[in-house]
Amino acid sequence: MTITTTSELGETIRNRRTSLGLRQQDLALAANVGVRFIVDIENGKETSQVGLVLRLLQALGIRLTAEMSPVPAARSASEESEPFDPDNFTPS
What we know:
By secondary structure, this protein is mostly helical. It contains 4 helices and no strands. Helices cover 45% and strands 0% of the residues. Pfam families: HTH_3 (PF01381).
């Protein structure tokens, strides 16, 4: 499952919580966060604290992994452009 928005994250958390038969109060106690935090994250609030989100995911048994896009191949020295000079920058 790919999660790209806070709304999708909130929906995932809500679905997992309800599938485990937990009330928001139960999850708040298990994750040592406030009920208001649970409500906010399930509603997709964008300013939620990452540390608390990670604690919440752990309490729900959700493992978060990072998938990296491939790094472009390095350019050869002959393809290298001039180094960036902020004093001589002209936007295109």
